[in-house]
Amino acid sequence: MINKKIAIIGLGYVGLSMAAFLGNHFKVVGVDSNKEKIRTLEKGRQYFYEPKMSYYLKRAIKNGLTFTDQITKEIVSSDFVFITVGTPIDKYGKIDLSNIKSVSTSIAKNMTNLKNNPSIIIKSTVIPGTAMHVVKPILEKNDLKESVDFDLLTNPEFLREGLAMHDTISPHSIVIGGSNNASIKKLTSLYKATYTKKQNIIETNNITAEVIKYANNAFLATKISFINSIANICQKLPGTNVDKVAEIIGMDPRIGKQFLKAGPGYGGSCFPKDVQALINFANNIGYEPILLDAVKNINTLQVNTVMNLIKQNLKNLKGKKICVLGLSFKENTDDIRESVSVKLVDLLLKQGCNVFVHDPKAMDNIQLVFKDRITYTDSLKDILVDSDCAVIMTPWQDYKNIKEKDLLTMRNPIIVDTRRILHIDNEKISYVGLGIG
Ligand code: NAD
User: Fold this and answer.
1) Residues in the chain with pLDDT < 50?
2) Which pLDDT does position 1 carry in this prediction?
3) Which one of 84, 268, 324, 386 counts the least CB within 10 Å of its CB?
4) What is residue 2's predicted lDDT score, i.e. its pLDDT?
5) What would you report as the CA-atom Rg of the chain, rounded to the nearest whole angstrom?
6) Could you tell me if the CB of 102 is within 6 A of ligand 1?
7) 100 and 130 in contact (C-beta within 8 Å)?
8) Domain-by-domain residue ranges, the chain?
């Protein structure tokens, strides 16, 4: 098994985590169409921040992990070819499968006259039916047959950014969808050879695997929008705290305590696009997904709750120095895709505020968005000086450690804490916790 050759196409959060991990066990080639990313990776460096990745990446490179920007015959003749390219949504909210189609076309071109029958594995999140109705017809264009000349599997990924290596090394479950038992078993045995601990491997068909991934993300997004609704109710009820409510309902095993942290709304590269793509897909197949519409709408509106908390405490925002603390969509990542902080900064600029921002890792990414329209501050201490309000958006450890003496350097020590991570007991500081009545 150790001799198996693996190719991973698309080296973002999912593909690079996989390459860094599997590269420690097998002969792996990573492919990405972005030449600049390949050049950086060839130097042994990662091009985004993800804890613990650099350790595995360096070891994998020592073990023979290589990179290329081309899908060649050699790549396609690997035993396992994982597709991990991005699957964004278009302007109508429909999944955009162009990366999947272009990779499938390149694989098809290189798949003729192979000595082996590669397993082509879709790891990207794709709308139900994609494997069988989109990818399979492309791969079969050159008179090749699925289950005869190649296998086509669906193996969705569940990792969390910020914990990508942890989740790649210890997945909570591995879902493998395929059209026949033999092809599923091949991938199952690869995973069995990879993981030392016994894994929870679920074998099913392609379309069920595709639905499982969307159901998973949609349910987690639902939990977030649910607790944010409860937070907005608590906000109006003096004496309540959404965290206490969440803690107690989370004790009910039917509910569970995870994903009950109220905040400014979910962001990132997955939940917003996946909920939207599922809504679009459901409508197209004749089902009106009222619940998912509500989940999405609650999330879109949650930034207004944050704005209202700022306004209630500052009245006129024009010319005020507002510090936005935390720009990545969650802690331990520099990813700002669909981050609610970006939406908040936009709204604050529209109100004529002087926006100052801080983030331990995402400053380079945010500068590409706002250029010279806002002020970037590396020091948490400095940003607070003479400011009118500080809004904690991302629960980075640095913000949990903010000292009261630094908050007292603000012109108006008003703290809007959307994650309730600070515990302030000082009457000179106005502390407003989202979800605390
Ligand atoms: P990403 O945007 O970080 O990376 C995708 C990579 O694919 C990029 O480096 C891009 O250059 C490359 N790419 C695009 N088209 C290509 C092509 N034609 N040939 C070769 N490379 C190409 O994406 P990601 O966050 O790693 O997500 C990948 C997939 O996994 C998506 O479907 C996503 O929904 C899903 N997913 C993501 C996460 C997550 O937390 N990021 C978790 C689970 C599942």
Assistant:
1) 1
2) 46
3) 386
4) 64
5) 24
6) yes
7) yes
8) 5-204, 220-433
Give me the pLDDT at residue 113, please.
87
CATH classification code of 220-433: 3.40.50.720
Place of tokens 């050879």: 193
Neighbours of 165 (CB within 10 A): 21
Question: pLDDT tens across 223-270, in order?
Answer: 999 999 999 999 999 999 999 999 999 999 999 999 999 999 999 999
In order, the DSSP letters of 168-211 are HHS-S-EEEE-SSHHHHHHHHHHHHHH-SS---EEEE-HHHHHH
Any ligand 1 atom below 6 A from CB of 32: yes
10 DSSP 8-state letter: -
Quickly tell me which residue has 């306004």 as its tokens. Answer: 311
Nearest CA to ligand 1 atom 4: 12
Ligand 1 neighbourhood includes 262 CB (under 6 angstroms): no
List, for residues 18-64, the tens digit of each pLDDT value. 999 999 999 999 999 999 999 999 999 999 999 999 999 999 999 99
Q: How buried is residue 225: exposed, middle or buried, by Cβ count under 10 Å (0-12/13-18/19+)?
A: buried
DSSP 434: T
- For residues 373 and 355, give the distance between their C-alpha atoms in angstroms, rounded to a whole number: 8
Angle between helices 271-284 and 290-314 in degrees, nearest 10: 140
* Residue from 8, 85, 214 to probe ligand 1 pocket by mutation (most atoms less than 8 Å from CB): 85
Asked about 353 being catalytic, the answer comes back as: no
For the full predicted model, state whether its pTM sits above 0.85. yes
From ligand 1's centre to the CA of 123, what distance in Å? Answer: 9
10 Cβ inside 6 Å of ligand 1: yes
- Look at the domain 5-204 and name its fold: Rossmann fold (3.40.50)
